[in-house]
Inverse folding.
């Protein structure tokens, strides 16, 4: 039987962030990982052809370089190096036009002005507005809800009128947000396409803020990639943790979190071992898995278990990696230098795609998010070749047949061939990951859901993962939710892990810890009382 101050379930990036922060505070930390390697959805591998490195899940990391959580960990001191493609992002229209976002705002402005005179000035003005609030907004986003200190700083800078306008923008759909900022489809689809990195449609409330966030980060920081693969982020987190005395046990699948006198006592793994936690258990797993599988409904307020029946996942995903023997033969050369390319639809097509998903139908014309990884990082494949991926969403369903997945792969590759005639002839290797494959390799990606739960407004802030405080604390004392199911949600930024670590540290302070727990217990009783 092992023992530590904190036992962390899961060596995904959020679990590793939590473990690092607790180790920084002098805690003895034990991480338990079910797989044989760390990383969760931040991993790389050779799956297409020899010499071609693919990022198996996440690939571009604007949130990581902007996150105050990850920046404070100084991962560049542990051999993490960032690389950039010549252009950040392009949206390729079916008719061959393209809008291109470059890290130079003037070059981006020139691109979008080709779609509508005056959008160059509008783009620069919108970016200036972003820069005015970006630092304080990110601080507020990546701290526990409610973000009192960061929120006050943001409001102080905006004053009342500015704060009200920002509040309005937070709830705007991406379509309305884009229409208010720009006149042409180029700039509008750059924003709307970024909003579609979530599971929200262009007309869903609160979708605009996600698009604005990613476009703003792309303009400010780019969409960088780790030199040598996504796993370099994971390796830096692991190296940092081990250097501070933390421990990681692989092949240790958590089976249960024993609850004794209302508090988490540790973790029982599938091999029968018990891992005692003297101070805290932090779980980098989806909320339903933590509450219903690891803890059990008998230890939870009845209202909480009922609320979990209404927890909603984000969409299922199909991802393809290709080894290409030459660069992508784009019909439109302007997109050749973009690390990320959105393609397959114009604005009307984006509506059709989202409507199909909303009707639980397979989209007839998929909207593709693609990545040219060698363009961004030449170490990913031999010179003169390309390591590339594409993914698109399907409705969230518990199971998808292999035939359904393969038929959608045909649609994806037909879309690629239309955008880049001769693409198929360059494919030297291919790897397909349907929803079931993604979940098999990473059980947190339930049915291929990438975000730990929907990004819809009804499951954000104090409503994430269910109505409550929007914090990492749970109704079980000394148990904390550290995954993307917690506020502020999906993306590689480390905030859920950091928030869980901060909550554990606050709960265990000698003088204020008992008051902290008493206040939470009172709040939970009022929220979950039957």
């Amino acid at each position: 039987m092992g023992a530590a101050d904190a036992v962390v379930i899961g060596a995904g990036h959020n679990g590793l962030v939590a473990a690092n922060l607790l180790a920084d505070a002098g805690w003895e930390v034990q991480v338990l990982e079910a797989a044989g390697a760390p990383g969760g959805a931040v991993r790389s591998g050779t799956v297409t052809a020899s010499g071609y490195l693919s990022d198996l899940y996440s690939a571009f990391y604007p949130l990581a370089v902007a996150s105050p959580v990850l920046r404070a960990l100084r991962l560049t001191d542990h051999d993490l190096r960032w690389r950039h493609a010549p252009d950040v992002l392009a949206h390729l229209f079916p008719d061959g036009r393209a809008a291109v976002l470059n890290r130079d705002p003037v070059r981006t402005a020139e691109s979008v002005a080709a779609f509508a005179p005056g959008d160059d000035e509008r783009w620069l003005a919108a970016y200036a507005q972003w820069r005015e609030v970006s630092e304080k907004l990110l601080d507020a986003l990546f701290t526990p809800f409610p973000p009192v200190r960061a929120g006050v700083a943001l409001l102080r800078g905006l004053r009342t009128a500015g704060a009200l306008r920002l509040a309005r923008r937070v709830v705007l759909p991406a379509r309305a947000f884009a229409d208010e900022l720009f006149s042409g489809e180029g700039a509008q689809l750059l924003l709307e396409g970024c909003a579609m990195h979530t599971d929200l449609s262009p007309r869903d409330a609160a979708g605009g803020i996600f698009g604005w966030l990613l476009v703003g980060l792309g303009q400010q920081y780019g969409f960088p990639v780790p030199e040598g693969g996504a796993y370099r982020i994971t390796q830096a987190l692991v190296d940092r943790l081990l250097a501070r005395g933390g421990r990681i046990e692989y092949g240790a699948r958590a089976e249960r979190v024993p609850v004794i006198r209302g508090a988490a006592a540790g973790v029982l793994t599938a091999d029968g071992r018990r891992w005692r936690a003297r101070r805290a258990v932090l779980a980098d797993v989806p909320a339903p898995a933590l509450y219903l599988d690891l803890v059990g409904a008998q230890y939870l307020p009845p209202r909480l278990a009922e609320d979990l029946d209404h927890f909603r996942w984000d969409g299922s995903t199909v991802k393809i990696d290709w080894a290409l023997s030459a660069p992508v033969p784009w019909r439109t050369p302007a997109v050749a230098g973009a690390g990320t390319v959105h393609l397959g639809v114009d604005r009307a097509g984006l509506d059709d795609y989202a409507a199909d998903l909303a009707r639980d139908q397979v989209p007839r014309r998929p909207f593709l998010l693609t990545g040219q990884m060698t363009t961004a990082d030449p170490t990913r494949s031999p010179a003169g070749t390309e390591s590339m991926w594409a993914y698109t969403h399907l409705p969230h369903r518990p199971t998808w047949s292999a035939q359904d997945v393969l038929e959608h792969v045909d649609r994806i590759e037909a879309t690629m061939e239309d955008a880049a005639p001769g693409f198929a002839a360059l494919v030297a290797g291919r790897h397909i990951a349907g929803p079931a494959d993604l979940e098999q390799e990473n059980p947190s990606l339930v049915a291929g859901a990438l975000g730990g739960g929907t990004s819809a407004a009804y499951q954000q802030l104090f409503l994430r993962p269910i109505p409550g405080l929007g914090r990492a604390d749970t109704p079980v004392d000394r148990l904390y939710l550290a995954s993307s199911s917690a506020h502020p949600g999906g993306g590689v930024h480390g905030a859920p892990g950091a928030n869980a670590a901060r909550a554990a540290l606050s709960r265990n302070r000698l003088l204020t810890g008992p008051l902290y727990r008493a206040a939470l217990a009172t709040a939970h009783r009022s929220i979950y009382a039957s």
Summary: Residues 119-184+191-210 form one domain. The chain has 18 helices and 20 strands. The first helix runs from residue 13 to 24.
